[in-house]
Amino acid sequence: MASSLTKDSVTPGTPGSERTFFGHPRGLATLFMTEMWERFSYYGMKALLPLYLVAPGGLHLSAATATAIYSVYLSLVYLLALPGGWFADRVLGPRKTVAVAGVIIMLGHLTLALPSSGTFYGGLGLVAIGSGLLKANISTMVGHLYDGPDDPRRDGGFTLFYIGINVGAFAAPLVIGTVGENVNWHLGFALAALGMALGLAQYLLGGRHLNPRSHEVPTPLSAEEKAATLRKSALWAAVAVVFYCIVGFSGHYTLNWLLVPITIAGLIIPVMVIARIKRDKDLDRAEQSKMSAYIWFFVAAAVFWMIYDQGGSTMSIFADSSAENTIFGWEFPVSWYQSVNPVMIMALAPVFAWAWLALNKRGKEPSTATKFASGLILIGASFFLFLAPLTIAEGGHKAAAMWLVAIYFVQTVGELTLSPVGLSVTTKMAPAKYASQMMGVWFLAVTAGDATTGLLSIANVDLNKTGIVALEATLAVIAGVAVWMYRKKVKELMGDVH
Q1: Residues whose CB falls within 8 Å of the CB of residue 47, separated by 6 or more in sequence, listed in order
Q2: Are strands 323-324 and 399-400 parallel, antiparallel or unpaired?
Q3: pTM of the complete model
């Protein structure tokens, strides 16, 4: 997207105040383009990943193993957002951390581009680490561009930033997916590296427009804390190396020795973090009550993401083997399905924003709990809809592409009733002591959902069977109904948060 730079007057002291980006601080253009290219690389690789894992010309793994790897990878990205935020707060500051993240992501994609299965998992790990570092901090820098939470341009700035995410996510499967599927898998991964390189170049060249606060390390580690952190990190790294050396040299190593510990961590760590905050005696009664309400939203979100993120794994693998991927006789790459959600987000997000505002003015806007219940029921409905193409395929026929498009449409509507609302309510309900950490806690709901999918796949549960799909759909609908039935109780626990 071309940037629109004008010489509109802006708040004095804003970095790059002589020019603006659609009326916003010039630094927003830098972060917009950085995030757009990073999402281009991330979503392009993600669209190729499950297809490459099952392809005869790729790693040729089973559908269950491919889904497990994909789900564990996604859970790791969101799990690492929490230490990513800590690293910026205590060690490097947001600006340097994002630069380091960009380099790590680019190296990860380049490693994936090597025609070797031995380096493939290392590349995935690098991309996950870099994404965790970046995800936690680039949004923080967008906030730094504005004069506090009351700046009238702030919400609009984040909306523009969100558009950048979806532009990158929309274009990536069309470009990277096409090259990866039709030309060469590893060339597709190399294009993802190029996308991140362009984002990193944009970030470094436009860095002068960012707010000086982005350079700061809010709560730097003391010398003693640095030494203790290094000692603990080295100890745990040594334990892991020794353990895997023993497993490897004894001839017992399989992929599950890597996947299972990460999956279990993806389930246990979110529970531990929530429990630690809930038990904190520094929280007053109102904050404790809000955290009790937040647990409802957290569990609901985990169930939602467990199903939603299968749009890139279970459904993509189904489309590859059992769908007629044609429109009016024209065949398209399977990875293009991953462009459906971002284009629908861009089309529908303004409609939802307008609808909530219109309902609010009439005093009829649904409560947060009702919105969450709607999101769960819709994600359940999407998998009930998935039963139709699954049944068609079991009858020996290819399912029409529009079945899958319809499923993605229902999931997108569900996402818009839950995801933005969840981000908002997380910031509103965060205890003062954990204000900067709660966004990482919200991401842990994604970790828990994807880790659950990964655990099912590791247990060789075929997620493309009508029985398990119906079970997941039923679970989501029951969870949605439960949230709706207890909405008044949840609202009471939320206190002054609306």
Answers
A1: 172, 173, 176, 177, 180, 312, 316, 335, 338
A2: parallel
A3: 0.89
Between CA 155 and CA 158 the distance in angstroms is: 5
Q: Which ranges of the chain have pLDDT less than 70?
A: 1-18, 148-150, 155, 435-436, 497-498
Number of Cβ within a 10 Å radius of residue 98: 31
Residue 88 DSSP one-character state: I
**Domain presence at residue 431:** yes
**Closest to 185 measured CA to CA, from 51, 361, 360, 291:** 51
Structural domain boundaries enclosing 233: 225-251
pLDDT digits (tens, 9 = 90+) for 172-227: 999 999 999 999 999 999 999 999 999 999 999 998 889 888 888 888 899 899 89
Domain harbouring 177, CATH code? 1.20.1250.20
Domain shared by 238 and 170, yes or no: no
Count CA within 13 A, CB hemisphere, residue 498: 6
Same-domain check for residues 263 and 276: yes
Counting the structural domains of the chain, the total is: 3
> What CA–CA distance (Å, rounded) separates 434 from 440?
10
